[in-house]
Design a protein that fits this description.
The structure holds two protein chains of two kinds. Chain A is mostly beta strands. Chain A contains no helices and eleven strands. Classes of the chains: A mainly beta, B mainly beta.
């Protein structure tokens, strides 16, 4: 199975901050990488697919980059509704696997 | 508007069975693959199973293969997960999720999710 490792596991940030979350795959996965946001008690939300494509309806402050084994999710200016957990997921080979998550908390 | 509503969770004893349902609306259910994804307490997300849009293909995580069965009823726009031989390690919130790709066998992402249903396996 492909292992996905996110860093950091958690971070504290203020509204307006630029936030970067990284995800590393245990083997090359080309650009088969998706990012999700998950707020407690709510349904998870697809943000980015194919490493850098913004899902319809997702604010443009979210962006993704990377290829091969190393990927990044960036929130350009953190908003109050962005405090949540974020997960990367590889879609290169089954079983689909997720990173352990990054919790973004209010500073 | 896509809407997914899970049901059927609850407390069950180890070794027993449970059947989860996911009622889908707001999209052409017959045209999209559907997944189950779970999250154990305090843990991350774990993909469980997927069924293709036409029901002909199913795939499972190793942790549930042989115990869980995913199925769908097109006439009722409903997805199911039959869970047998449950163990404490199956305790989790179970989410159903829609695959993004219409009439495709890619079955590799999750663009809409339900709110989840909690399954607790305990004596």
């Amino acid at each position: 199975d492909i292992q996905m490792t996110q860093s950091p596991s958690s971070l504290s940030a203020s509204v307006g901050d630029r936030v970067t979350i990284t995800c590393r795959a245990s083997q090359t996965i080309s650009n088969y990488l998706n990012w999700y946001q998950h707020q407690p008690g709510k349904a998870p939300n697809l943000l980015i697919y194919a490493a850098s494509s913004l899902q319809s309806g997702v604010p443009s402050r979210f962006s993704g980059s990377g290829s091969g084994t190393d990927f990044t999710l960036t929130i350009s200016s953190l908003q109050p509704e962005d405090f949540a957990s974020y997960y990367c997921q590889q879609s290169y080979s089954m079983p689909w696997t997720f990173g352990q998550g990054t919790k973004v908390e209010i500073k | 508007q896509v809407h997914l509503v899970e049901s059927g969770g609850g407390v069950v004893q180890p070794g027993r069975s449970l059947r989860l349902s996911c009622a889908a609306s707001g999209f052409s259910f017959i045209s999209y693959g559907m997944h189950w994804v779970r999250q154990a307490p305090g843990k991350g997300l774990e993909w469980v199973a997927v069924i293709s849009y036409d029901g002909s293909d199913t795939y499972y995580a190793d942790s549930v293969r042989g115990r869980f069965t995913i199925s769908r009823d097109i006439s009722k726009n409903t997805l199911f997960l039959q869970m047998n031989s449950l163990t404490a390690e199956d305790t989790a919130v179970y989410y159903c999720a829609k695959d993004p790709w219409r009439n495709s066998r890619r079955l590799d992402a999750f663009d809409y999710w339900g709110q989840g249903t909690l399954v607790t396996v305990s004596a």
